[in-house]
Design brief:
The protein has 115 residues and is mainly β. The protein is built from no helices and eleven strands.
Length: 115
């Protein structure tokens, strides 16, 4: 099983980034996919979730209106597009696949928002 995140980097406040998470080794289409983020000393927090067929999405209040989660089941990939980024969005962003009691995690990709 692999979840490989990419697309992180450094951006100025107000900028945008699009994260990708490529999945392999499991039946991607059957899993709810989510993005989480974590900063040092804090618990990992949910950013956005998309159901298995991409019909329902949910966002953390802090990211509503500034982000969009999507998935391409043909490419086994989930995306997180973030706009109007703020310094407080700085974190390691993780991809998560969940189905019933099974959870898979990626290794994370760093997003840094600063001048």
């Amino acid at each position: 099983v692999q979840l490989v995140e990419s697309g992180g980097g450094s951006v100025q406040p107000g900028g945008s980034l699009k994260l990708s998470c490529a999945a392999a080794g499991f039946s991607f289409v059957g899993y709810v996919m989510s993005w989480y983020r974590q900063t040092p000393g804090k618990e990992r927090e949910l950013v956005a979730t998309i159901d298995s067929i991409g019909s329902t999405t949910n966002y953390a209040d802090s990211m509503k209106g500034r982000s969009s989660i999507s998935r391409d089941n043909a490419k086994n990939t989930v995306y997180l597009e973030m706009n109007s980024l703020k310094p407080e969005d700085t974190a390691v962003y993780y991809c998560n696949a969940r189905r019933y009691g099974t959870n898979f995690w990626g290794q994370g990709t760093q997003v840094t928002v600063s001048l």
